[in-house]
Amino acid sequence: MTNLWRDLAEKLKLDRELFSRSYTVLGENAVIVEGQKSVSSVSLTEVSFVYGKGLLCIYGENLSIKTIAKGFACVEGKIDKVEQV
């Protein structure tokens, strides 16, 4: 997080994690996830990540985690829906 966002979050008393999480849906074929804490579950139809104080759930068909690193993941397959719960 840049100093600007960190300072703003501190002044507004916001959760700093809000600024370090995002996801991007790339058409119907992939989702890039940034800021996840860990993998919660993996199946061919659902991939879930611990994401902030909840979960980020990716639903679809033939899903798989193609890349994963600390705070970054790429899920590929036929993406039907992404939901933050």
Write a structural description.
The protein contains one helix and six strands, in the order αββββββ. By secondary structure, it is mainly beta. The longest helix is centred in the N-terminal third of the chain and has 9 residues, at 3-11. It is elongated, with a radius of gyration of 14 Å.
Task: Summarize it.
It contains one helix and six strands; from the N terminus they run H-E-E-E-E-E-E.
Sum up the structure in keywords.
6 strands, mainly beta, six-stranded antiparallel sheet, 85 residues
Oligomeric form: single chain
Structural class by helix and strand composition: mainly beta
Strand segment count: 6
- Write down the overall geometry: elongated
> Helix count, per DSSP?
1
The helix-strand sequence is HEEEEEE
What share of residues is helical?
10-25%
Task: Look at the structure and give the mean pLDDT.
Answer: 85
Determine Rg (CA atoms, Å): 14 Å
Q: Please summarize the sheet with the most strands.
A: 6 strands, antiparallel
Low-pLDDT segments, ≥5 res: none
**Beta fraction:** over 45%
N→C terminal distance? 24 Å
Placed side by side, the strands forming the largest sheet appear as 1-2-6-5-4-3
